[in-house]
Amino acid sequence: MMGGARARLQKVRKRDFQCLRLRARSLARPRVFFFPILSSPSQEYKEFLRSAGGPSPRPGPDGYSLSPDGDNLFAWTAVLAGPEGTPYAGGEFDLVLSIPDAYPMAPPSARFVTRIFHPNIHFKTGDVCMDVLKAAWSPAWTLAALCTALRSLLAHPAPDSPLNCDAGNLLRAGDERGFGAMARLYTVELAAAGRPRRASSSVVAAVGRASLAGGG
Question: Rounded to two decimals, what is the model's pTM?
Answer without folding.
Answer: 0.71
